């Protein structure tokens, strides 16, 4: 059967975008081909808001048949953090049958070469982009993100991260030429002459283990990096966030088939409640690459046990913001308030520990005591979330009972500077919506250390009193070294303090945002420009996205012969 | 104190070479700045043969004081495979003191940037190159390589591999710009604008664990890749092959100091007999990168236990040559004979298993039976090594008693097609020089499988009778998959067989040489063009050299602030 999508068509359609992505990762200037505004969709085949919502609604209570081999059962049971039961059923696989089937298409996918694989990946991303409104609802009702965030972070931003991974994967594979002629002079004798052919070859089958909070954003980099480097990809979603990745797999299988490849190069591994198949899959000999986002405990387990695979993990960290001095006090407070509130602090990048000198800070409005800074920040959060509609749009819903329990327990850890409030969601009355809590702790008290030196994932932050800027810097160093950090923030107008914070971040490999007072937040990174994590501290063993993230997903085989 | 070597001078001197190396790894055409011919040395500050020999002789029986902190003793005791005692003493380190000292210079080395680090590395390589004659004797009298091989493989070829690693390290670090201006449109509102700074930061201290047979060739890639990416490097040589790496460390320390950096960025960890410090060092928290060449047992131990480090291993494999058919029978035989004889088969790339159909092979001179092929090959080896002077120049000496014992035991494994002979070395009467043994085995006999499916490092090869070309291809696949391979060779004039062998090599990630009959041998790879190992089968987890070999030796830290 002739492919419906030819290489020629795909390359003509997507090569310009690939080239722009390659240029973007080189300059790291702003770029994205995926519109952020919901109203940008609805033309050229993309679904508008109403069509996207209708498409999502049509999925509910149905069976998502991906046509996968070895399907031995149907599983489901997702309940939205907004309270509705999705009722979607997914294929449950006989793993022996599915893994065997995933191998059959690998040779053709390998032989297609780096450029063809890249443009097939770009076609998959384009189809996903066209359905961004539909995916937004799927992300919203699995992660608990508010609609606008689910739309942007789960849509264009996730697609950007996927495309970025494709760009890195492509450039890494074409660093070595397809062929070389090698001629070595031998003095008066004839030169030695060899013809060499170099082929990027995949590792095997890659496993993507998805997370609850950012199924697409955290899932796409590994998925597309592995696929673009010639591997087959098995997607094991979080049991509470299957739908966005199941739809992704569906699109990928469709595009692969249309381009003449085996759709089983991408497959879904949904599981029964409590089945815990990630451990089983992760140690199968066929699985040679694993991408994981989630708890430190399981990430460490994967690194220690899935020894047959290249393992890329993003685990937990303790993110710190040092508040030392500022020349824009209001800007600092509102920027921080937004960071603490966005998606109820359920981002791996949300600040947890705010280190503030117990003697207070300098501002352009004069000095502020520790207590004043904390209460001003509490007031700023209150102001930001004072209107219920805006609070709902910013906070989203608490993703699972574990986060809610931690939030409730946090009030017992110290003096509560800002209490968490319930917010009613008129559209989804069962949604659990809570404002963040801020708890005061003392950096010098050993009892408090247990709290601020542990990750407390969710809308909980600690205002930690420290003795001095130097004390803050040392606590930052210790926190990053021992617990890891996805982000570090600092506010200071003092050149020496800034240098000291920078030096800690360079030495402990943490990504630093300095003096943010406007519309960019410490917990947000932009694909093609910002690195997400560093891969150099305990929070993650890899960064999104760099050469190291893609270079070991394939190997280069050389075949040489005399010329 | 002002540096004697300024950045300006070093860049002016070495940037053109770096640029040529960058171009060479891109095209993979022949290139080397390091002359292979001994007579090319003696001008422009390089030592000629006599001066190099004199410099080596002056080292014997002396103390190599590297000026390292924490030196608590002096250790030595190398005995050349050629029989002479080197009598050189090296510093033994108090590891706590030495590791602490190695950290002090890291910040300045990091801040110097990728280009400065690269040219400092090139200056180190240049000084080593100038002393190639001296190094050649040091390599000869530790590895047992014959002089010419020690000269070339231990000199220019090792320097090439070091330079190649520097080139990869440099290009990997400058893929991300130093700074970026990021401006994101916000419709009618002001755009978001950020200034970003990106800094490559080292992992920490890198450990190079050297091997007995190729101290410089296998040591330089890891050493220079780590140093060029900003790490300090601790070199732990094999106790029988300290001198070449101790001289390397000495040169590196001298150049670093002259360029204004802390010489302790490179240090030596020599050990007492039986001290076994590699295990202790490998699990120290300060050690964040390990490069190792040696046994599978210890390589696997490192991968499993040195979890705080990035571990790059080259271990053992079982290298196969399939002999199916040829249109240049004599060329094939002489090429194979050379490969089996060079350095007494003590290369990780030497063929071990020659798979030959039991029904014989086709040649341009007509069919040859299995027995004829084996006896013709034996005759070819005999002819190559018939003259004692040539035999000594090719074979070198047996590196250690373990290899000799294996060689002697091999004759008991099957029918001996070519017996090993002792060769007298008139210059070094105590040298143990032996010609290779070829033993016939039957691929269908389970008893024989234990022999040919294990690595028998040294001048031992097995002529394994197989049922068919397909049988050979399947045995090749199984051998690479289960035991790993640094090299694969094949002789065939049959397009289908060639395709089948290629497909196995692509699927199992093995480097393939086809139909070599001239002056290029399966066990030799050329830097800047050939990959050494693939990193995709059990023989090695990395290849020399590619992006994956360097990309994870550093991380990139971003500092961003509002524009």
UniProtKB/TrEMBL annotation, chains A, B:
SUPFAM superfamilies xrefs: ALDH-like
Gene Ontology biological process terms in this record: L-proline catabolic process to L-glutamate
NCBIfam families referenced in this protein's UniProt entry, alphabetically: PaaN_2 (TIGR02288)
Spans through the membrane: none
PANTHER family on file: DELTA-1-PYRROLINE-5-CARBOXYLATE DEHYDROGENASE 1, ISOFORM A-RELATED, DELTA-1-PYRROLINE-5-CARBOXYLATE DEHYDROGENASE 2, ISOFORM A-RELATED
Keyword entries, A-Z: NAD, Oxidoreductase
Keyword NAD listed: yes
Domain of life: Bacteria
Residue span, Aldehyde dehydrogenase domain: 92-534
Pfam families xref list: Aldedh
GO CC terms of this entry: cytoplasmic side of plasma membrane
GO molecular function, one term: L-glutamate gamma-semialdehyde dehydrogenase activity
Protein name: Aldehyde dehydrogenase
